[in-house]
Amino acid sequence: ADEFPAMQILAALGAIYGAECMLPVTSVQIAGVSYDNLGEAGLQFLSEMADGGGKTRVLTTLNPAGMDIENWRNLGIEADFAEKQERVLDAFSRMGVITTCTCTPYLVGNLPGFGEHIAWSESSAVCYANSVLGARTNRESPVNTVYCAYTGCLPKYGSHLDENRAAKCIVELTDEVRDNIKGMADWGALGAAIAEKAGNRIMAVLNLPKKMGPGATKNLISCASPGMNDPMLHLMGYTPESPTLEAAFKGKMPRKPERYKVKMDDVVEMYRHLNAIAPAPGPEKAKPVDIVFFGCPHATWDEVREVARLVKGRKVKKGVHLWVQTDTPTYFMAQ
Question: Which residues of the chain have pLDDT under 70?
Answer without folding.
Answer: 1-4, 277-286
